[in-house]
TrEMBL record:
UniProt enzyme class: transferase
PANTHER family xrefs: SUCCINATE--HYDROXYMETHYLGLUTARATE COA-TRANSFERASE
Record keywords: Transferase
Keyword NADP: no
Protein name: CoA transferase
Species of the source: Rhodococcus artemisiae
Amino acid sequence: MYKGQDSRIEELPLEGFVVVDLSVGVAGGYGTRLLADGGATVLKVEATEGDPLRRWSGSGAEIGDEESGPFFQFLAGGKESLVLDPGSADVAMQVGRLLASADALIWSADSPFANIAELHPKRLEADHPHLVIVAISPFGLEGPWSGRAATEFTLQAWSGAIVGLGRGAPDRAPVQVGGRVGQFVTGTYTAIAALTGRVNSRLTGRGCLIDLSMLESIVLSLTYYPVTYHDVMERPWRTERALVLPGVQQAADGLVGMACGTLQQRQDLYVMMDHAEWIEDDAIMSRPAEVAPLIAEWVAERTVDEIRELGIAFRIPHAPVADPSNVATLDHFEARNVFVENPYGKFLQPRRPFQVSSFTWAAPQPSPALGAHHDPFGPVRTHNDGGSGTLPFAGLRVLDMTAFWAGPTATHLLALLGADVIHLESVVRPDGGRLVGGVSGDVDMWWERSPIHLGGNANKKSVTLDFTTDEGRVLLERLIETCDVLVENFTPRVLDQAGLDYERVKEIRPDIVMVRMPGFGLDGPWRDIAAFAYAIEDAAGLTWMTGYPDRNPLEPSCIGDPNAGMHAVYGLLLALEHRAATGEGALVEASMIDAALSITAEQIIEYTATGSILTRQGNRGPDAAPQGLYRTKDVDEFGRLDSWVALAVENDAQWCSLVDALSEVPEFRDSRFASAAGRLEYHDEIDKLMQAWCEGRESERIVDLLWSAGVPVAKMMQPHRQTEIEQLNARKFFEDMEHPVAGRYRQSTLPFTMTGLPERLTQHPAPLLGQHNEDELKALGVTDDDLRVLEENGVIGRAPAR
């Protein structure tokens, strides 16, 4: 229980939900932090020396013996700590007693408890059938790659995320997305999985094992449906690295990012920059040597605020590029109070990444001292043998008023898990995802062929309604009345101008959960700025952490959307938990920017705690050395000498294994490299030795040698080659589809398997535009004659209006 800001005593949705945390690291730490924020009791079980993150400082600042680092304090806020010795004879029995009185377990493969046979998730599933178990591992618990060494960096390489969007300079190695983002998104999926398991337990009376793969989480979050794209378009999204323009540029007083996702935005950009003649030569942006100096000159002559004013006027996605020293001072973030003090008052941290109207959050809670919990045992939980075999979200009816990537990826997860999702579009304004992806407008039914739309909308229905008309507005309100959930990601003015804010929607359906996903939030000076992934990444510090140290940062151009989508799903699930207990609906504000700020938390935490500015390191990382990409002798599929292996050494044992495996390089035995500190200091020297060894060898042979030695290594994959990864195939991550217009292609699914789910999740491909108009509108009382008139008037339809 807690006291809310309005002095009401309220209960958070997850109060009474007891979670035992046997994980270490960011993914489990962030996932359980989200659960604790929702009211769950999280008992963090630590080895005698504590979670390694207790001793972590990104800047290398000294941490006192009785203290914990600020990043750990953020991740562990609101939790409890219990110390157990993994080496003791009765540790499995002690953990078992905890689990008998818990509802859920979060387990990670790198935990000091992970190698205890009695504490393996499959054994625990059998011993504790009431328990929801979420097991986090690099590749999943089963399959040919299960148990192999990996880091986020090598997983990014396997996924294709490093090279897939052409990120990096043509004369250098491609570059990773910086800032631990893969671990954070895996943490968000951890929290979603735990609540999905909770819903499933209510249906079945039993627990379940949810096997969460970090590789699959990264595929879904850092690549843009590349397999579907390649199958449909018969070519990859990009084949080479190139400077993305306008991109990040140096203005008169700081860095600013601009990017254009549509033809209209590009043309508006040309006019804004006083180069309307470029409209007749739209390919000019593919000639960076010609145009880049002109763009740089134009930006350099203006301040960031001047560019922002022009960007708003011309509706160009843009944002200042935030870094740890300026992010808290940006006017929009100050107006929205997005940063709050840690309970110890020593640093700032982002507030929770979504707001839910049906309850008010408690103030940020402190992290526990090591071993501070003294009363670990509660009543023993029980289970039933039986119950429903339906999907977890069967019976949940969702009106999906989203477009592009962030919103559709959220509702896609719900649809795969059984929700009845109605994707609402109009012939005047179809989902923008139908309009991107490179399908020519002279191709028959081009709007049904976009791989981007196909990738994020399987298992959904499609209804078209132009709700700017009186007839469409009436029908939309009748449709809302039939739904449990409404999700939308327009800029705030769209629904506000239509008179469909939460207060009106609640009048129509009092217990509805409405999820609004604006780019920059429902208030503040940036609320109506057009927001695409790159602008969100710029403003949140994701761009700042990505790129080469000696050049302007590079926009990830990926994580901003799916990260927002998954945070919106978690906020929705919390609101649904509240509704299940009280019958009360809610407004969930899940802005893209708040979700992004949540996963860049380490930057503002480290800066305000120590004064240190974390910044991009190319392909190096915060906790591995050596770490990098090394060119091999292979010629890639495009005929270029552009094949690489990714390597990351996290500890002394892995270094010794690398040295033994590369016995023909005696220089690696130099005593300077024996310690982690030495390897960091002499990283450049190690890189030269490693590159010299790799460049005469094939990628496959390098990976086979080092992986068998237990060294985290990967072949840098083109993302459209994800289906060649035997681990993904073994886990049936992709499913074959047959679309009536686009033909055959493969469809990504979920990043986890779960006890009781059917073998196949995708029951039908993305719908044709307006495919379900007749079924859904007739259910509202619309007659055949009404349908004909509505179509004649353009209120509904099956093709975009010309």
